[in-house]
Amino acid sequence: MKQCLIRVSLCVLIMTSLGIASVAQASDPHASEVDPRIGTGGDGHLFPGATVPFGMIQLSPDTAMPDFKHAYKWAAGYQYNDPTIMGFSHTHFSGSGHSDMGDVLVMPIAGDVKLDPGDEKVPGSGYRSRFSHDTEVEQPGYYAVTLSDYGVRAELTASRRVGWHRYTFPAGKPAHLLLDLRPSIYDYTGKVLWSNLQVRADGTVTGCRTTRGWAPGRELCFAMRFNQPMTSRELYNRETGLIYNGFKGPGNQPEDSNAQNGRALEGVFDFGQLKQPLLVKVAISPISEANAIANLDQDGQGWNFDAQRSDATAAWNKALAPIDVDGSKTLRTQFYTALYHSMIAPNLAMDVNGEFRGPDHQVHHADGFDFYSSWSMWDVYRAQQPLLILLHPDRMTDFVRSLIASQQASPFGMLPVWAYQGLETWCMTGYHAVAIIADAYIKGIRGFDADKAMKAMVSTATYGDYGDLADYMKIGYVPIDKEVEGGSKTQEYAYDDWAIAQMAKALGKHDIFNTFEKRATNWRNVWDPKTGFMRARLTNGKFREPFDPTSAGYGDDYTEANAWQYSWYVPQDVAGLITAMGGDAAFTHKLDELFDAKVDPSIFKNVEDITGLIGWYAHGNEPSHHIAYLYDYAGEPWKTQQRLKQIMDNEYGPGPAGLIGNDDLGQMSAWYIFTALGFYPVTPASDEYAIGRPFVPRAAIHLSNGHTFTITASPLDDAHPYVGAITLNGKPLDRVYLKHSDILAGGELHFTMQAQPNTTWGRDISARPAAMSAYSR
User: Which CATH architecture fits 106-318?
Assistant: First the structure.
């Protein structure tokens, strides 16, 4: 993708057998049913290490940090099939296609110390160590492994702002901890602009570094303490041949034992021969060393590693508790792992004193709320954020307030597009933060200033310099001769405009509603009735030629997709799209063509994100995620059920390679959760969910209002893949959608499954999910 150079959105989790031969009730706390290894191989881009729900720390092993050209598979720093570990760093993205971070990398060493990672193919050539998966333990909030080259048992856990380490060294060998401030995920060398490192009088090690990575000029500080006194220490500046302010880096010679400044700093802390484990705790801050120390003082009290591990497990059990699912052990592992991955981001990005870094790179203060960042908006607005609205509405209040705070700190008056640690990357397209805010408000989330939110949404949608919004506002589309991906950008802007209109309507702001409701129809300006596809237009109004609906490439008419995939993206006006395509029969026939096409995957060899193909449908990337549900809107919901079975059977698998692509900060996982439950938010910012079919025999959603919404299905097996009938609280449900209020009220949704499709249920227009051109209810 051209905005972020490299990014992937690929499938997420799980699913071996959806048969439930050994149905059981989930009685154990759900953290015990999670397998963090899922997605740590292939293109999953998930890390196996320790974190707590939405925490600032993601403490995890890094197996490699290659240069940018070769780093795609190491977006999370870890690849399951790698033979060595180079260290443990404190910040990681969860399933992103692009990356950065890998901050504050440490490596416990027994015996002689080497200052460079070395070659994984040459044991002993550096400080990295071989390891065996047989020695790994991966659990929510806890990770352990034995570093076989050193005989060191490494254990990691986390709290909100602190990473906790426990290293058990072999007897008879001196213990060291190496700290390397040079590595950065996606580019081992060359990203550090400046760093500093010092050992304070009380033995606390602190430092900061500024990097020129995905978010240029990002500053990250830390404070580190040990439970054992150092016997000695060496601080290195490895900038051989580089001169700064008249100082030439000495390379491998320690310059000072107390403080260092430069671009390539390392520290080696010596502890002699230890008779008990070395405990290390590290706090980070986006602001300063002083704030990192304060974070450590408040969030890192004491030295009880096991208590911290227990607290992390308890935090995950609480986060996972809103849904109880029955089914086989395999099914529950798959389900709760997906739920776990949907609750890692966004991440806390605020110190204990309320300070956070804004997109203007200045320090701001959050008054009365926790500030969160790590926003992959193009991905998470679709299902991950709607899932959190349903399961953790209180948390959503802070999320929305964080978005508003970011907009107020933006030099451009923009809500976040793709932000982390408070800074903006401008990756991906659209302004989908407005959909998250509108969806939250429409579904009853309060506790934030709605008028201020509306101003932030309008300010974002009218900033003409962003993605050629100026032309979009003037002529109703984004001209491809002025802006790449003009076709898909027009479609995404139109949907976001519709979301703004819905919130404006709810607030009684009629002028804003009328303006953005009209803008929401702009998708029609890139619809070509002659070819039957969405297409990019030139400034003169003509469609760009030549046109090939199978073509896809970065900077093309569409964002990480081709015409076959993006022509279905009108979530706010599916009824209008059906009419444009010639009616129900023509619409579903073209959907069938999409899924049944014979496609050579090599056609997308230059677009890493387009994978998980079923025909032209690409489950490995977000533009396809709602497509299977569109049969509901054309009166053939049985085909939605058929396609969902096809996707779940073919696109998910267990184990490290169970994701055919990256999780995109929880979106792929959230798609799985909604689909397994039997419904999906095709149009966030509406109050409706399109009904699919369930893949679990029973699920109970425990809502924050004290009600429980239970979903049951029988008989649920491969021989009965279709919905025969549905009842809601014992009464037949003739419509193919749920309202958010149906869920909040509690009760039971029951699916009667059958072997053959029910081709009459859901055919009436009144039974279909709402769409803008048919908004009668």
Answer: Distorted Sandwich (2.70)
